[in-house]
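quick q for whoever's on today - can somebody do inverse folding on this one?? i tried earlier but teh output was garbage lol. tokens:
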């Protein structure tokens, strides 16, 4: 019983790390999969298989480390120099992620509440500042509550769209847009930058390396199922692709209950993602010698200008850029596995 409970915990941590506000908004899925139509669905499946494999590899190796820190894990896979570079890239990505979540909050306030994006950005930034100045008590509880609601909300909206659409859901028309496979790898790459940092310490939950690895497979499998269903639903509703929050527009089509529920889930996902990424940056600055108050105000204040860039533009440029850098991490994990084999 305890082993099964720990397995579920690890899977939930992995799922919650990847299943952030970018996924919930639908922007990620449109950018990396949906716009490629049938080939994008194949790319989604390939990415899902990689998430299962990479999650299990990171967790099983990290479980055997005496010091279960992200930096130590990177050094055992790459050596000190490359590990330092990847740790720096991860920190920069966390900074960018904080700005993207503030921008997404602005888009949410505009589309859902018909208010100025500036209000959403400043309100969310102020909430984050209050958390940074205090502590993260209660955030883990919020995430535990949010995760099942988010899973239920996304599956409900996706299945409703698929089952009520008159088109053949599993045979979308082939699109002529670009090459799908690199974008599948980019999607895995930037997500693994943050997922690996979370999974390494989480491996301590498992009794042994096998349980840890199975937790990675479980989290990757559930993520794949959700990504495929959401992608198919978005395939069938091309009119929502141009929106800043495509999944929220799908929820509106599914009725008032789904729209209200998904609105709450989406904003909470943005808020918790912003707090998580921003707090990591504040902690890093604090460890480097900056005062906590100074670090908190600096992060929140400096993020505001970039947050006024359109949400879809930030997702399209930042996520692809860090996805390219993240391929280095993915390649290292796979090469380390090959050497151990």
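ok took a stab at it. sequence:
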């Amino acid at each position: 019983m305890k082993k099964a409970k720990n397995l579920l915990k690890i899977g939930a941590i992995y799922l919650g790390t990847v299943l952030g506000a970018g996924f919930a908004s639908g922007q990620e899925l449109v950018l990396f999969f949906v716009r490629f139509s049938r080939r994008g669905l194949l790319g989604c499946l390939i990415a899902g298989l990689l998430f299962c494999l990479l999650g299990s590899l990171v967790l099983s190796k990290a479980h055997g480390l005496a010091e279960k820190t992200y930096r130590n894990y990177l050094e055992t896979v790459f050596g000190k120099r490359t590990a330092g570079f990847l740790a720096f890239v991860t920190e920069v990505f966390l900074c960018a992620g904080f700005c993207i979540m503030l921008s997404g909050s602005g888009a949410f306030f505009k589309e859902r509440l018909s208010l100025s994006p500036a209000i959403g950005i400043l309100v969310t930034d102020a909430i984050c500042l209050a958390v940074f100045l205090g502590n993260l008590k209660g955030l883990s509880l919020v995430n535990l509550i949010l995760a099942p609601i988010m899973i239920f909300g996304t599956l409900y909206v996706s299945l409703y769209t698929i089952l009520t659409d008159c088109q053949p859901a599993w045979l979308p028309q082939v699109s002529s847009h670009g090459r799908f496979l690199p974008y599948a790898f980019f999607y895995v790459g930037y997500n693994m930058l943050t997922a690996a940092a979370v999974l390494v310490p989480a491996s301590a939950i498992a009794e042994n390396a096998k349980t840890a690895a199975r937790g990675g497979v479980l989290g990757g499998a559930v993520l794949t199922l959700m990504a495929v269903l959401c992608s198919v639903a978005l395939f069938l509703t091309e009119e929502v692709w141009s929106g800043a929050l495509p999944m929220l527009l799908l929820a509106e089509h599914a009725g008032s209950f789904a729209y209200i529920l998904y609105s709450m889930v989406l904003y909470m996902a943005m808020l918790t993602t912003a707090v998580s990424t921003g707090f990591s940056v504040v902690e890093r600055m604090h460890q480097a010698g900056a005062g906590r108050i100074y670090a908190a105000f600096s992060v929140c204040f400096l993020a505001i200008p970039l947050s006024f860039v359109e949400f879809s533009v930030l997702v399209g440029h930042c996520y692809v850029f860090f996805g390219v850098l993240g391929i280095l991490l993915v390649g290292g994990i796979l090469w380390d596995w090959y050497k151990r084999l």
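fwiw The chain has 14 helices and no strands. also The CA atoms of residues 168 and 236 lie 9 Å apart. so keep that in mind when u check it
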